């Protein structure tokens, strides 16, 4: 049995760790990749494909960090697949933060997204960021026109003289017009940007092959949209930009039908601009398990909920709202900050009416299961990053450990609601770190001379290696604790009668984004 396999990891009497190698093997054995409970991302994307068309857009790393770009690209593709599969266009982004995912879902996939965050500064920042993104699209459009002008000048220098073209026209066998259109890669905007709702650009009439037609064809490259501009068109919703005028055809030579089509397309683009160019709405609200979304979103319709690194209890509450509200047809949630989860059995408090972040499923509730804050803190560590050589912040952890000894022994403080935060990165020395930390904790540092601070440092500095070893053991154990939290959420969904399918999917590269697992669920068709 599994218990027999790993029975020699700890001493039976002292309960101390006696076999580090076996400890590491046991941790790997109980990690999520080894348990075989995850659904591969490729499988779910294929299952949800249906008739959806692939879209290509600009690189998000122009606006985001590499980590955030990776997360947004991968998750937005899956969200779009789920939305298409369920036949919905409205997405509720819980804990939307700065609005990266929301903006991309609306611009790239033309989804109507409501981003809800408890921080008003985040909401205001998302508004401003969305405004700047739209401004950036216009800058791309201008750059595209400039590139076209540059290409036109280069091609003019390289173009053969007209007499040479005439000579080739006379001496060479005329080409079939249909072949010209196919072989020269002349593509309409509609084909390149299927999601934008533009009508076809007018192409040259496929009439009799003449000398004039060939000359016109050699000039047609002037009207080809630059690669950058095409990429921008592809991430914008229909009508969000004016149709880029093409010099491919002389407007005077257009037939009346083509002129009418162009006029109608232009009018449609202008009419839809006000209604479709702002498909992302940042809102400020604190979300709990009892939140009524209809009180926040007045035009709530059939929708799906998403959350990219929803913090602490917010991930659990997202799932609870999903199961309780019939209009929410699907959910895709990636949690984080496990240390901020509330636990029902942590303090042995009898609060039956309270809604807790852990446990969620009835199985663990019946067992009164408790992780504890230290275990939940460990679950936040990144084993994959350490495995590829990213070292643990041992010095900052050492500073923090010695500081705790100081405040306990000198000030008699064992618990505080205040936090030190990222003081280490702003400190020039250990003395500087301690004094800044004491001020944050509102403790009087005047009674603590520098010599006393350094005495504590010297007393414990030889034990820094012990601290590093201890934290490495915590890193190895981290995936096992994360498994418990994620499986609790999955089991909660499995207990619901309205759920057609639920699963865990590894969305991200764990080196780039350590909290890489999504909890996904779709409701039964009868619930639609």
From TrEMBL:
Pfam families: Methyltransf_32 (PF13679). Residues 67-344 form the Methyltransferase domain. Gene3D superfamilies: Vaccinia Virus protein VP39 (3.40.50.150). This is MET25 protein. It comes from Ardeotis kori.
